[in-house]
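Researcher: Structure prediction, please.
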Amino acid sequence: MMYSDPPSYHDADAMPPQQRAEYDAKKRRDADIYRDKITYSTRYQDDAWEYRHVTIPRELVKYVPTDRLMTETEWRELGVQQSLGWEHYLIHKPEPHVLLFRRERDYQVKYPNGKPEDNAKYLEAQHRISRQI
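Model: Predicted structure follows.
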């Protein structure tokens, strides 16, 4: 049974394996369809952090958890593309299609090759995404 309109993220967690596989396939197709519609703000900063917000198409919002922050793998699976060090740090409930990210200020200067833990997260995300294709 394929979903024309997938259930919410919370419903997906409780699905039987076959149904979950179909849901994940639909999510990958949607991410591919809407990837070019994702927009990225310019970066802005304070004394400690560099920030940016990413606006995803409303068609992808159904894949965004509402009760917790997204992992790097989750936001990359939706088609969000950013360099190393960014973390989803805040949920702005009035605008669930706007994802708020931050990273340590001057990250790329301090860590030109990325922090080891950020490289590991990135490689894990890429491995998981490539297994799904």
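Model: The first helix runs from residue 9 to 13.
Researcher: Thanks, that helps.
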